[in-house]
Amino acid sequence: MKGHWVGLVGDVGGTNARFALIDGQGHIRNPRSFPCKDYPSLDAIVADYIETTAGRKRPPKAVIAVAGPVLDGEIEFTNLHWRVSEGDLLAQFEFEAVELINDFAAQALACPLLEGADLRPLGKALPKGPHDCPIVALGAGTGFGVAALARSERGDVAIATEGGHVGFAPTDEVEIEVLKRLMVKYGRVSVERLLSGQGLYDLYAVLCDLAGEAPALPDEMSVTREGLVGDPLAGQALDRFGGILGAVAGDLALTFGARGGIYVSGGIAPRIAERLAAGSFRTRFEAKGRLSGFVAAIPTYLVLHPYPAIVGAARQLEQMGRM
């Protein structure tokens, strides 16, 4: 159904691009997902979505969350061979205003709005953190994204980061062996080298090697699927993945002083929700030596909302309207 649209919002990752329209009441309408591999450029996806969804009543403004650093209104995607600029989008689609924001910055903006069925506590249920304390949003998918939200009475400001590219810090002998083997393959080993789809598979392959076995599964999707139904080495990979995710989340909680909460999203975590909740995620999150008491009071949530970056982009669109 066509209507009066105040804006276009999008979330473009390394695998999928999601778009929606914002109506005059601020509601998110007509969400659709597009496989990035099926299109030559982001422009082609935007054109397809607008033509088939908005029709002649085109939205005047757009906020698009993108997977990578936005520098001077331009993004060169980390995991796609695409370059996009706000100026090009303005010219091609005749928007009045366009803003590109980091996808996890958008997710951070969404976090205070999520509640109820949109969230699942990881570990014991804790009260939501103080309203004036920072929040961190993080998640593993094609890559590993991190952003923070600075909060005050004057409003919230998203802080985009490239925290997924900090160095991986092993915490036991198994992870030291994982690091050694991945250094041979990659040189420097970042957090994203483990906390991503490819990272999950690399972790599985290393655990197979340590067990003296050849990997029997072909990709990360099969590792997830078989690990959840009883494959021993795939199960170990999922458990180790969840533990590393918890350790990294705890490090980020310390880095940002994120007493407002840690929100875990991305493509992988929701698929292994039960494993995360029952595994070592929270134990590793709290295992911070002298600062364990500090992080023990911080709530950790799994984001179950299907489009958190769309929610955040819509919030940014609303803030654009007040400028």
In short:
With 323 residues, the protein is an alpha/beta fold.
Would you give an account of this structure?
This protein is globular. The chain has a six-stranded mixed beta sheet with strand order 9-14-13-10-11-12, with helices on both faces. The relative contact order is 0.16. With 323 residues, it is α/β, with parallel strands linked by helices. The protein is built from eleven helices and 14 strands. The chain has two domains: 5-108 and 307-321, ATPase, nucleotide binding domain (Nucleotidyltransferase, domain 5); 119-304, Hexokinase, domain 1. It has helices spanning 42-54, 86-93, 103-110, 173-186, 197-210, 220-228, 232-256, 273-278, 281-286, 292-296, 308-321, and strands at 5-12, 16-23, 28-35, 61-66, 70-71, 74-76, 83-85, 97-102, 119-121, 135-140, 144-152, 155-160, 261-265, 300-303. Helix content is 38%, strand content 24%. The mean pLDDT is 94.
The CATH class of the largest domain, by name, is: Alpha Beta
Strand order within the widest sheet? 9-14-13-10-11-12
Overall morphology: globular
Reported CATH architecture of the largest domain: 3-Layer(aba) Sandwich
Q: State the order of secondary-structure elements, H for helix, E for strand.
A: EEEHEEEEHEHEEEEHHHHEHHHEH
Number of strands: 14
The oligomeric state of the chains shown is single chain
How many domains make up the coordinates?
A: 2
Rounded to an integer, what's the Rg over CA atoms? 20 Å
Largest sheet: 6 strands, mixed
Instruction: Assign the CATH topology of the largest domain.
Output: Hexokinase, domain 1
- State the helix count: 11
β-strand amount: 15-25%
Average pLDDT for all residues: 94
**Cα distance, first to last residue?**
30 Å
| Low-confidence regions | none
Please estimate the helix content. Answer: 25-40%
What would you call the structural class? Answer: alpha/beta
